[in-house]
Amino acid sequence: MKKIKMFILFLALSIYLFSSALPVPSLAAVGINSYCYNPRSLFAEDITTVNAQYADYTILLPGEIVSQGGGAKLGNNDSAFSHKIVYAKAYLGNRATISDIGASLETDSATYGWIKNLDEKREELLSMAVIYELSDGNITNLFWSNQAEIAEDLTIVGGGYSGLAVVESDSVFNGGRGEIAGSNFSHVVELTSVGRATSKLEGGGNIQWQQAVIAMTEPKWGIYP
Fold it and tell me: How many CB atoms neighbour CB 144 within 10 A?
């Protein structure tokens, strides 16, 4: 089920990213904060983009919140985005499970896109997915969910890399595949959870590599406002 879900998210992002005709932008940074709540749930977002477009919608009802959206890089300039989500749902008195998820990305040349989904009627309640492709440049990423996060720093000369991240309320996944031909690369991935683990790959020549990291997190508990 997890693999099928990640494939669907990957496919949706690919269609959004590579089939849309995006306008050529001027250098610009845009940010927005939103805060929605009903008697049972609270949903807050903090979104910042630099040379990227983003669109979404949120349906707020007395007993339900639904929110979906997606964004992608614009043009060939340096680009970045940061998307933070906090979601709380009460069900035992004033106790609530609290999901804190997010992703941030900064690059000088990579192409990327991301989507988020919140649907209180689905089993997979809250999720975010990011897809990116890098050729000859640098990208730095951070993906997190509650007590775990995955940080990635990748530089490639004379090659390419395709990556995917899926963030849910109880897990963070990041993986991808790269290849260089007679050139060099540096790829550092750091997982922080109960402890910290770091993977560093670098070299030159004709090289292919793959990486995958997954972290399972515990739900947060808090007092519902």
Answer: 20
DSSP-assigned letter for residue 3: H
Q: Name the CA dihedral angle for 33, 99, 1, 117, rounded to a multiple of 10 degrees.
A: -20
Report the distance separating Cα 141 and Cα 126, nearest Å. Answer: 20
| Radius of gyration in angstroms for the set of CA atoms belonging to the chain, rounded to a whole number | 18
Predicted TM-score (pTM) of the model is: 0.87
Tell me the per-residue pLDDT of 164-179, one tens digit each, with 9 for 90 and over: 999 999 999 999 999 9
Contacts of 42 (CB under 8 A, 6+ apart): 35, 36, 86, 87, 88, 89, 96, 224, 225
Q: Beta partners for 40?
A: none
- pLDDT on residue 21: 44
Per-residue pLDDT reduced to its tens digit, 135-161: 999 999 999 999 999 999 999 999 999
Distance CA 52, CA 77 (A): 10
Amino acid at 28: A
16 backbone dihedrals φ, ψ, rounded to 5°: -65, -40
DSSP structure string for 132-190: EEEEEEEEEEEEEETTEEEEEEEEEEEEEEEEEEEEETTEEEEEEEEEEEEEEEEEEEE
The residue ranking higher by pLDDT, 10 or 30, is: 30
